[in-house]
Specification:
The chain is an alpha/beta fold and about 160 residues long. It is built from five helices and seven strands; from the N terminus they run βαβαββααβββα. β6 and β7 form a beta hairpin. Bound molecules: adenosine-5'-diphosphate (ADP) and magnesium ion.
């Protein structure tokens, strides 16, 4: 697990951008955390880093937003209004994953409908503008992805803020 505290919404977007650059078709990110913890803010960075100029909004009512870049799509889903995994099964997440990365907000609500392997990102309010992000890889592919993310993230931190591993 990798734990990072961000100190502003912009820092969370930068984190998202760093992560978004690494995403490929078939990658699944499961975002967990209460209202206001920063999930949608993180996705704004993810979509930009992945390469889409599209505006990122909360898909609470439409369930899934699609962001485009010249080749490919990024899927952004919000499971908040779903009754549970059974309803999620109707959405055919597998079809999404065949044509792009998929990022799910409130993933904890549909855990049973998700594939076994994914990168879990738990977000929690800390104080005012501070948010704790815990990134937990499930499966070897996501361990490698997280390693690559961590390497880049550390390289863009100001020297004074680096902590020993
Ligand atoms: P969620 O999708 O989890 O409900 P949002 O991203 O919509 O959360 O909202 C998070 C709110 O908290 C935004 O208003 C954002 O500007 C604010 N915020 C303040 N500090 C942070 C931070 N460090 N990371 C993310 N959002 C932050
Ligand atoms: Mg949201």
């Amino acid at each position: 697990m990798l734990e990072i505290t961000t100190h502003s919404a912009d820092e969370t977007r930068i984190l998202g951008r760093t992560l978004g650059r690494l995403l490929a078709t078939g990658d699944l990110l499961a975002l967990e955390g209460d209202l206001g913890s920063g999930k949608t803010t993180l996705v704004q960075g993810i979509a930009a880093g992945w390469g889409s100029p599209d505006r990122v909004t909360s898909p609470t009512f439409v369930l899934i937003n699609v962001y485009r870049r010249p080749e490919g799509r990024l899927y952004h889903m919000d499971a908040y209004r779903l009754g549970g995994p059974a309803e999620a099964a109707d959405l055919d997440l597998d079809a999404c994953l065949e044509s792009g990365p998929l990022v799910v907000e409130w993933a904890e609500r549909i855990r049973d409908a998700l594939p076994d392997h994914f990168l879990q990102v738990r977000l929690a309010w800390q104080e005012a503008d501070h948010r704790l992000l815990q990134l937990v890889p499930h499966g070897g592919h996501y361990r490698l992805l997280l390693d690559r993310f961590e390497e880049t993230w550390r390289s863009i931190q100001p020297a004074g803020s680096r902590r020993p591993r």
